[in-house]
Design goal:
- This protein is mainly beta and 206 residues long.
- It has a single domain, classed as Porin (Beta Barrel), CATH 2.40.160.200.
- It has 2 helices and 13 strands.
- A 12-stranded antiparallel β-barrel has the order 1-2-3-5-6-7-8-9-10-11-12-13.
- A hairpin with a 3-residue loop joins strand 4 and strand 5.
- The chain is globular and about 35 Å long.
- The chain starts with 27 loop residues before the first strand and ends with a helix.
Length: 206
């Protein structure tokens, strides 16, 4: 895994967290559809611009102290596991490779620094960032407007942007339909996982 630099992603300096196959040399736009009623496919489906399924998210598995979701590819192979810990001071999620929740398979963690006055701020720390003095990525924007930007660390370098998209399909098939534009050489699976965490955090209090 290449640690993120403070400079814009490039062919020799890509943002690769989950896997190099998700780092494309051109921008990619993905749609994240949140369903209202599901049976077995989970409550999120992630598609590319042509409507091809990239990822699905399995429904929550609840324990006494954790909530867990698994993001799988189109064929059902687990990509990452997202796990939150209940009753923490900050909403905090940990993301692990595959279906593991072992610390040696952790990829990154995320915690809120603010969800006040409809404004969202999420700090993301890669696993090698032990002190967490400075975040590796941050998300800022308005969740109410479904408009958020993912930045590289504390810089002004944008790596992805999210906006709400209203379509007939979103009205008929789901509650929300987000569009996420991921910049070149940025791990789009990683960006999707961050947006999914944002959704869970912002809906947990509703």
């Amino acid at each position: 895994m290449a640690e993120a630099s403070r400079t814009a992603p490039s062919p020799t300096n890509s943002v690769c967290v989950i896997g190099p196959q998700y780092c494309l040399p051109y921008p990619i736009e993905v749609g994240i559809v949140k369903k209202v009623m599901t049976i077995s496919d989970g409550n999120f489906v992630v598609m590319d611009a042509n409507g091809n399924i990239l990822f699905k998210v399995r429904g929550a598995l609840l324990t006494f102290v954790h909530e867990r979701r698994v993001m799988v590819d189109a064929t059902g192979n687990p990509i990452v596991t997202l796990r939150s810990k209940f009753r923490t001071v900050h909403d905090r999620w940990q993301v692990f490779r595959g279906e593991s929740t072992e610390q040696n398979n952790m990829l990154f963690s995320a915690k809120t620094s603010s969800i006040l006055y409809l404004k969202t701020k999420l700090h993301v720390f890669l696993v090698g960032n032990v002190t967490e003095d400075v975040c590796d990525f941050r998300v800022e924007g308005s969740w109410f407007d479904r408009s958020c930007v993912v930045y590289l660390g504390e810089t002004s370098t944008v790596v992805a942007q999210m906006k709400k998209k209203h379509t007939v399909g979103s009205v008929l098939l789901g509650k929300d339909n987000y569009t996420v534009t991921v910049h070149p050489y940025v791990d789009y699976a990683f960006m999707v996982a961050i947006i999914l965490i944002l959704d869970e955090i912002n809906h947990s209090g509703q």
